[in-house]
User: Fold these one by one.
Assistant:
Number 1:
Amino acid sequence: MVFKSNIGVAIMVTVIAVALAVMELAIGSFPVDIFRFPVNILAMALWLTLLIVAYKQRATSRFARFMLSQRAVWLSFTLIAAIGIALGLERKPSSDAWVVVASILFILSHLIFITLRGWRTARGIRWRFTLLHLGLIFALGAGFWGAPDREQLRIAVDSEPNDEAYTMSGKPRILNYALTLEDYDIRLDESGMPEHYEAQIGINNERHTIRVNHPYERSWQEKIYLISIGEDTSGERYCILEIVREPWQWLSMTGIVMLIAGAVMMFVGGPRRSNNDKTTVRE
Amino acid sequence: MMLGWNIFPFVAAVVAVLAVAGAVVALIRRERSVLAIGLMCAAIIAMLTFIAMLWFTLQRPPLRTMGETRLWYSFFLLVAGLLTYARWHYRWIMSFATLLAGVFMLINILKPEIHDQSLMPALQSVWFVPHVSVYMFSYALLGCATLLSVVALARRRGDLNAAIERLLYGGIAFLSIGMLTGSLWAKEAWGAYWSWDAKEAWAAATWGLYLLALHIAPTKATGRNTAYHVVIILGFLALQMCWYGVNYLPSAAESVHTYNQ
């Protein structure tokens, strides 16, 4: 019943948003860590199965018809804009808030419904439709389902080997390799601004150069970034490194490349109109 | 300096004459003009030749200083203007691209001190120039779509819908490419494709609003749709927040997108 009118949808969204806000106040942010591998894979498989079953019942299911309706289109994009504005006004934005997690899950679910229908029915724009929608599912889905597996660590490195890094919340983590600062180079321009800086890092007796925009790729899921360079009060050189482990990064990258290809096709193809140029084929 | 910035005023004059001639021909001719395309191609080749000479003289890619970056802006703006004219035949677009490119060439001539001013290390990336110039071009197209939407709302007619929709498609395509190249760059610079930083959050709001407009576009070429035009205007307001408005918010203090230069 609630899916049949704009007011019904607005009431439903308001009730859910209030319930999520109460939950946020009662138990804090969404417990992302619970969904670490393999729980996230199992949850994602269950979610996809439920969506496909619901899609197959679209002839009779009000929920499925709502997810394929123009109201759901309005809701999805309004949620993206609302999340953007809310987080854009926050000093320290948290994407782990219950309402943000629920909104992204809804947007992803809506995208799956639209993609399942559209890849067959998007006449004349099938390739660009598929690249844009599937690319967004990959990019957004990898960020969403992969977030629990993402690890961001900081470590201070000097001439002595160090394997103790810290999470962003200050918890220690022992690495399975040690890092040393072998050398560094800073060049200033005439106005005294840093023009270039880089660090020579020793990783298990191998020497690698790291500089801004040029991280060291230690494995398929791990990169090491240079954050800063300096000298402590005793004159010893040190640098701060950031270690990012992100197993889902390649799915994100695939989605982004698909989206770029789709955007190029969108520019080249433009709006598609029927033969008499009176009506537009919807995306 | 051998064949470097010392000859840039002459090169800029040649590029300006060719680009202005191409833009004027495009404005005058009702049909897509091969002459206009040829003149703009010549301007682009002249600019590209200078960039290649500068690259050879400096013995490094000219991507490090403020002056070098502005050179690439001018180049990409002319390229984007030419591509959009060739594809969509907007008669005014090459004039707009020439004007914007001209501003950057003029800054390089009037402020020679920036030729050697370093770009901060975080901005020294192959992604910088395409990311910024693609964004600037999308802002131009979306700005035009907004103006037409205001006119459409005032006239209470839908006869501008086809033009608005074309501008919207081009603008959103460039906006998306700008945002996505930015996310690839962010991964190399900071380790995350997307981090809901204040600027990124406003970019998402802008993108969401423009995509909403795209999906609720009137299906009939002359159909009236007030919500469609209002959403386009809201999208442009969000874009202003993303571009420079965010710098005035308290959230900008924590933003990694805050640069001192």
Note: The mean pLDDT of chain B is 87.
Number 2:
Amino acid sequence: MRLRGSNKWRFLGSQILVFVWSASAAFADAAPPFSPTNIFAPASTPAKAIFGLSLFVLAVTGVIFLVVFSLLLYSVVKFRKRKSDDGREPPQVYGSNQVELAWTIIPILIVVALFMATARVIASVQKAARPDNAIEVVAIGHQFWWEYRYPALGVVTANELHVPVSNDDHPAPTFIKLLSADTDHSFWVPRLAGKTDLIPNHPNSMWIDPHEPGIYLGQCAQYCGTQHAKMLLRVYVQQRAEFDGWIQQQRQPATVSNAVSQGQRIFETTACINCHTVAGTVANGHFGPDLTHLMSRDTIAAGAAMNTPENLQQWITNPDAIKPGSLMPAMQLSDQDLNALTAYLETLR
Amino acid sequence: MSTESIAWPSTPVESRSFVDRLHEWIATVDHKRLGILYMIYALVFLMIAGIEATVIRIQLIRPHNDFVSPQVFNRLFTMHGTTMIFFVIMPFLFGFANYLMPLMIGARDMAFPRLNAFSFWMTAFGGLLLYFSVVGANGLYGAGNAPDVGWFAYAPLTSRTFSIGHSTDFWTLALLVSGVGSIGTAVNIIATVLCLRCPGMTLAKMPLFAWLNLVMAGLVILCVSPLTAAQMMLVIDRYLGGHFFDTQAGGSAVIWMHFFWVFGHPEVYVLVLPAFAFASEIIPVFSRKPIFGYPVMVGATVAIGFISMSVWAHHMFTVGMSSAANNFFVISTMAIAVPTGIKIFNWLATMWGGKIEFKTPMLFCIAFLFQFLVAGLTGIMQGAAPFDWHLGNSYFVVAHFHYVIVGGILFCFFGAFYYWFPKMSGKMYSETLGKLHFWLFLIGFHLTFDFMHIPGLLGMPRRIYTYEPGRGWDTWNLIVTIGVFFQAAGILVFLGNLIWSYFRGKVAGNDPWDAWTLEWSTNSPPPVYNFASIPEVKSRRPLWDLKHPDDPDWEYE
């Protein structure tokens, strides 16, 4: 397991990279500039490794750009045909083997350096050892939402992934197995890691070890159908005690009081249960998100709307108003039934 | 050899009825007419796909915009991509290759004129099939309409489970049919270059244009074949109960990706090599110097051809390949930067010490050099696989490949249009309108595609019909959309220039650029059989030898 900074001094052994990595550490400690999904504000080891490499590549390509662009600009200005031109052809030069050799060898050397730096980061991310205390999550992509399962912890949830903070003193990385229930998707939370695709019949994996608590955003990055755009990702990074508390709470079955049994009856006698599960009841559908602890989530519809009673009612009666083309059908309910159903959903804490 | 003896004596043209003239064009097997048909066809589709792009950009001008629905948006980007690649750039490059190749190598026509006509009409039919889907694809009520699976149509989105109706079938058939046309033309180009060169023109004395198109044609045969195979497998999956890409029955979505990108990446070089070909003709003439390092340019071209066949999976760095596979595709992808870099340096060296004339074709080529440099460097960034884990499928990659295809390829095509327009029409284009087109398009291009990199770096994925506010993407998307209108204005000026100059332009004469290759030795426009007598050449610049008998090229080559 490589944690932040532990191998920075060996990285290529190059002075440039030492500088680059120090810069990256300074950069990453600041609040995310410009955007909550900025790839240059890494907050997890894989994202930081990529960030270090990207600065190196940007530096090399930046120098190449400056050199070649200067040459282009110089020749366009210097060798333009002037007003005072005598009309004679310039000296006809056919080539030079020495010059050709120079601009073949130098790029080859640059390519070798870039390749070695890249191979190093590929290995550090793809071949990272998995410690025994790693959190194991199975992420399953659906059209157009995310299912998260914690097999060792007995938790199933949707759209909002909770993981513990990981740091040098208490490393607790999260390893995510990526599956798809239908089409291709891609898991991309830029501040935590590069993207990895979720492909049916082709299990993938990735890992993150966020260093600071907070909410990290992202979204599906592989076109997966009509509502690819609103298949948003939210990762809640919590302190360990808080995360353990969340797990405890998610493991409970649904608690239902008699006062809202009317709503529960509607839920269990309509099409809702074909797709949704509420643990401990007859509802055990698997096409849609698990609703056992719906009210513990901040958002609905894979992050497309905040989880408020008004949005819930709109989502139930007219999902297209929030997310046109989503696979949630519009439920034809009377106002009375809708209110009872919403009241029931609001008890699912 | 003198100019007069090569040119065809001009004969008065009898006026014929419109139907007769139409019949002549439709039934033609003449490489020049087929070339022009290809170009007109490509221009029409350029308009259509350009309008699609404009609608896409209007939708993305601000977050949560609802100018079009997600369903329409998904069709638009699918049709925009498919059209631009298969029915704009491909016909453009085949059109130019058709028109110019026999003229540049001193031949009377392509090797197989009837195959040539067949290939054009197959390509044309393919484009019509694609757009017929808009009215013909409704398999189920309300389903169908235009394809909406993305231009690389990843499985299993194309399976009958997720693509109801016939829109995907029209997409598949359009590419199958036009692929037949592409392979036919590629065979024709190879046969023409290898068999029909005029006396004295050895392979080492061909214009670079011929070399680049020869390698392009070879790549077409190698890369379009797997695409055709994949399309057939998809049809088998959809209609004959096959399971190649059916992930629910043990098929593989990843194998489609391999098939598609084994086509898709060499295809990028199929598109860009003809652009290199134009730059390699235009830059020397307007710098008044021969191309620098001709043998190295040929070697670099062949190297690009070979290496381009081994880089495809750099489109797949995020699909979970082993680190060994990732490393292989990193090194092969970066390796291709070496011969490409050599080309840029040789073009620069060609300009170095010359007397550069900033005519419109040269302006487009200089902008091409700058933009292709940037596109190459952003390509290297994405070649570094871990960096690509962020950049892949983000707006950064969209900006990158538009930098290649618009900033590199389309700029060269515009340069080529202006450079050879006098030869094809016999009329000179308007230099004022040409420069206006250049500056409008340059400003629009940079507003759109420079700023498009930034939302990608800030986490914006491609192919989303809308986006959330508060991600730092709003301003950049606004600027990107504004640039589109400059580009559109530039294109309108371009079309206006072509039409106005065709009817009102000054007579161009046989050789308006004081150029050196054989097409400038015959009439403008060239007669049906190109040359009154087949020319003989002794060097790569036969017209230089003719114009400078005291200092001919063949003494140095």
Note: Chain B has one domain: 28-555.
